[in-house]
Amino acid sequence: xxxxxxxxxxxxxxxxxxxxxxxxxxxxxxxxxxxxxxxxxxxxxxxxxxxxxxxxxxxxxxxxxxxxxxxxxxxxxxxxxxxxxxxxxxxxxxxxxxxxxxxxxxxxxxxxxxxxxxxxxxxxxxxxxxxxxxxxxxxxxxxxxxxxxxxxxxxxxxxxxxxxxxxxxxxxxxxxxxxxxxxxxxxxxxxxxxxxxxxxxxxxxxxxxxxxxxxxxxxxxxxxxxxxxxxxxxxxxxxxxxxxxxxxxxxxxxxxxxxxxxxxxxxxxxxxxxxxxxxxxxxxxxxxxxxxxxxxxxxxxxxxxxxxxxxxxxxxxxxxxxxxxxxxxxxxxxxxxxxxxxxxxxxxxxxxxxxxxxxxxxxxxxxxxxxxxxxxxxxxxxxxxxxxxxxxxxxxxxxxxxxxxxxxxxxxxxxxxxxxxxxxxxxxxxxxxxxxxxxxxxxxxxxxxxxxxxxxxxxxxxxxxxxxxxxxxxxxxxxxxxxxxxxxxxxxxxxxxxxxxxxxxxxxxxxxxxxxxxxxxxxxxxxxxxxxxxxxxxxxxxxxxxxxxxxxxxxxxxxxxxxxxxxxxxxxxxxxxxxxxxxxxxxxxxxxxxxxxxxxxxxx
Length: 604
Hints:
The protein is α/β, with parallel strands linked by helices. The chain folds into two domains: 16-341, ABC transporter transmembrane region fold (Up-down Bundle), CATH 1.20.1560; 372-603, Rossmann fold, CATH 3.40.50.300. The chain is 59% helix and 9% strand. It is built from 21 helices and ten strands. The chain has helices at 19-27, 32-45, 48-61, 73-119, 130-171, 173-192, 194-220, 222-227, 231-284, 292-332, 338-341, 411-418, 439-442, 462-467, 474-483, 487-492, 510-522, 540-551, 566-571, 589-595, 597-603; strands at residues 372-380, 387-395, 400-405, 426-431, 434-435, 448-451, 528-532, 559-562, 574-579, 582-587. A hairpin with a 2-residue loop joins strand 4 (426-431) and strand 5. Helix 2 (32-45) packs across helix 5 (130-171). The protein starts with 18 loop residues before the first helix and ends with a helix.
């Protein structure tokens, strides 16, 4: 499996290595983030007090400073106990508050990606495999929130290091500069490696995504692999992808660990330099050299500053890595920018769901107008030559209209464009004589309901697959199942409507999946039902029963159907024949058998 890099617009890429979208995430929480920043800055700065207390205590012991002699062992223990309680409370509150902030930031980006996917045309699949999509929703969101997490430590580290440097510089400016020099060097090294850090992280994420995507495809195609005896080639392919991932992950983890280690060792190096340079000064003591308290302050603050250097270096590395994840998530949101990814979103708000406007459902502007009228409808697939061109058709109430043609003639494209699942480039769609401006929002239940050529069931109970979150009682469900000729099948299922169908309905046959999807459509009571080759997995007897239950009743359904099967064509009130995306013939099956050579070839 190869990972394709998709082109993005000039504003889609995240500038400054991911800094701009990170700042946007901070701004999205104008109360939560400043509070978290203040709490963690205090948490970082509190340990400086330990150094000050130690300095005063030791200087008081040797009488270096008379005004510090009040620090006794008892007062030091009391002060340390009070410090410990305050620091524990600060860390506990900071963790609790910051975790909520990070969750909201991550969930907001996930919601933005989901909102964009829902906004894309319903028949246009996401370019990435399910494994790749899951990786971006999970891993990339985690990596960006990790950078947001470290941003408060970065700020706290800067403040803490600045305070420490000022305190030490007041004692000995030269020693302070020498002690802090390793930290500055480490930060310069990390900054120099920024592009390599980003490149390694991007390669690691791409190879991990390739493994996840291939694994997902393999698990969903185990039957095809077994019947073709392809186990060994599949395993070899999986091994090659894993080897590539291993190399990239080792590079990424090694560079990350190296930058972390450099930050962790700066305090030790600084302390060693202070020991070497201050040995003589410490031995002399008095006004000409360092006191014991001064040396204790140097040792404690340098140890604390080493942690600050670690977090500063880690943040600089993580912000570069987060830029990779921001770009990958934006790439998933086809046609969007980082601003769309980081738009403010309150988790309490519900995502908008397309529904037919109540004021338009069932409205009849002209009693003589057909239920559905399509004029000059055109859609050309952007990545292929196929599509439909200037298609006209109409569906009267109670009619069965069948669209037929060879494979690739544009039948499915026509249905999907009528329903708004694909955007129309030209043409009009009218409902009861009124033009439909937004088919994607209008052509949904209770106006229209659709069963695709390859319907999807979810790994949950059959009842839940039929209702899909809508209200409905068993009577309605049984009626829909009866119309879809599923009652005999249902009687053999161990738990009836509560039977678990398995992932993608794998515990059901192909025909049962199609008829269950048809029942899901029928239970919504839409005025127009749209089938895409529904009967392809049905035997002749079951198909005949299905059409009879739909149309041999007092109130027959109104249906727009794609089919090449004789029972559907023979029963149709109107047949539309497509070739290369254009209508080449129309009429009843009897008329077309006399007048259309294209139809006769299909009829056989």
